[in-house]
Design a protein that fits this description.
Elements (H helix, E strand, L loop, with lengths): L9 H23 L5 E6 L2 E6 L2 E7 L3 H18 L5
Antiparallel strand pairs: 1-2, 2-3
């Protein structure tokens, strides 16, 4: 049996797991704030947050875990730190 591409290593699988966990944390946090239609998906060179298929934030890195951590930071700045106090 031959494979078209090589099998992922344990390190690559761990990186993808961290990226998935980061994406889930972001979606859950924003859903708790009332947002709907959220999706985190790969974009060219990193990951992006989409709301109803509109790109809201992006973070670039060759490493999936690093890109999603940067996306978490960017979204924290956009959604949590920019909220005006009344």
């Amino acid at each position: 049996m031959s494979y078209i591409r090589s099998m992922d290593t344990v390190e690559e699988l761990a990186t993808l797991y961290v990226a998935a966990e980061n994406a889930n944390q972001l979606i859950i946090a924003l859903e708790d704030m009332g947002f709907e239609g959220l999706e985190v998906r790969p974009i060219s060179g990193g990951y992006g947050l989409f709301i109803d298929d509109t790109l809201i934030a992006a973070a670039l890195s060759d490493d999936a875990a690093d890109a999603t951590e940067k996306l978490l930071d960017r979204c924290a700045d956009k959604f949590f730190h920019d909220i005006m106090e009344v």
